[in-house]
Amino acid sequence: MITSFIDGRLRIRDESLKNPSTAENLRKVLFEVKGVSAVEINRRVGSFLVIYDKAVTGIMKIVEAASAYLNMKEMINDAVQRKKKKTAVAKKRIVRRVSNIGMFLSLAASVIAAIVGGKFLHIAAGIAFLIFFATHFAQHKEKIFA
Q: Which of 15, 33, 45, 142 is the most exposed, fewest CB within 10 Å of its CB?
């Protein structure tokens, strides 16, 4: 299972790496890939860490090299799906935060404009509030109508 990967670093866990001969053969194969600068194998937990130059090689070349020893195709697909899901959650969190702050600031501006007597600012801030509220409502409609 790919436990983590970013450009230049890949960590994989697999029970077969607890076998010393498998681990050593995998180390030799990975060092043959251009751009790989370090391979650290932990036989106790059955994992390896590959440090590579992302300008020279990519994760797929490393996966292809290691695929003779491990079932990597499934692992890479699972890891990519997890990363996409984390990215989607992070984007939703940013949109939620912006809409919440926008609602607060536009409501405050609308109230201040109403007190001071700025009709145009009051209307503009009200419209901005409605736009932020629509974004907020679209994110939380499942919870509201549940």
A: 142
